[in-house]
């Protein structure tokens, strides 16, 4: 093997993010006070529906006292305030740590006079022309121009730096409704694509044979569930162990477990490892009473701003993790739980911000784990068939 052939690191699918998170815009070209006020109003308008964040740089570090115990050598000072929590760090926050802190945000606004972001909103203010010209190289993905009261057209250096400037929307900085509508539209367009994942990789130890092969509805259950998900998802995959791959019908895409030995938790992580920018409608294969109405209701009430959308289980009185939509922002959360020794997806749902629904028909959530369960469900299905 030559040096060129050698690969030191595994090739992983990376989430599409910027400096802070998925959906970030640097606002630049105006005074910092104007940028702060604009961010304040946009966040105020959108925060009821979206998780919003703001990033800036202080101008007065030289006159600000180091807070709390940091002056005495602490590396971290945490205070649980009445209305918020405050963290103060002694050491510089590394780039990857910033992304961890902002991972749950749907919208991140950045003071672009101090820090860059993946996309930009540019204020055209005659008084800040020279300052903006110094930052023209930061204008890599301008999506909106805002004209201040003293400006009626874009600067010539902007038109030269951005050949397609005429295709970028322009509005008045004072028109807050239009600016807010711009961000709201962008967030709706950025809603993650929904894929489906049928969990069929269990060993079915209590049942004594593969539950995914049980024929409840004219075909093996794993294929029945995959077919049910297709109308609601872009792509549908059957999750299985590597040893099972040869058993799966080639008509159905397979996603092998790469986080092995972790059961459903590992299957969900494996799906995000394959595609970290998709949301995943995860469903266990042992739900013979599952119906389209239950799936349709789950998708209709999906809240992509939450970690997940799940049904409340009347049996356990907890969220049901194996008929749920897991959003991309749940991926780092799942990994953090794993790092702390937890591999229970239900525990993740219990301890995070989720959208919890009541199932239109709770019976649809019934799963089958043992031969006794199987016989009971046979009777229920027979009764339903007879009634129809």
Rg (C-alpha, Å): 26 Å
Q: Count the DSSP helices.
A: 11
Largest sheet: 7 strands, mixed
Give the C-level CATH assignment of the largest domain: Alpha Beta
CATH superfamily of the largest domain: Spore Coat Polysaccharide Biosynthesis Protein SpsA, Chain A
Assign the CATH topology of the largest domain: Spore Coat Polysaccharide Biosynthesis Protein SpsA, Chain A
Mean pLDDT: 90
Low-confidence stretches: none
Helix content: 25-40%
Strand fraction: 15-25%
The general outline is: elongated
How would you describe this structure to a colleague?
α1 (32-46) crosses α5 (176-189). It is elongated and about 80 Å long. Strands 11-10-9-12-14-13-15 form a seven-stranded mixed sheet. The termini are far apart. It has eleven helices and 15 strands. α6 links the parallel β9 (194-199) and β10 (236-240). 29% of the residues lie in helices and 20% in strands.
What's the helix and strand layout?
Blueprint: E1 24-28, H1 32-46, E2 52-55, E3 76-80, E4 85-89, H2 95-102, E5 107-111, E6 119-124, H3 129-134, E7 142-147, H4 156-161, E8 170-172, H5 176-189, E9 194-199, H6 221-229, E10 236-240, E11 254-256, H7 263-274, E12 279-284, H8 292-300, E13 308-312, E14 319-326, H9 330-339, H10 345-350, E15 355-358, H11 371-387
Parallel strand pairs: 1-5, 1-6, 2-5, 6-7, 7-8, 9-10, 9-12, 10-11, 13-15
Antiparallel strand pairs: 3-4, 12-14, 13-14
Helix pairs in contact: 1-5
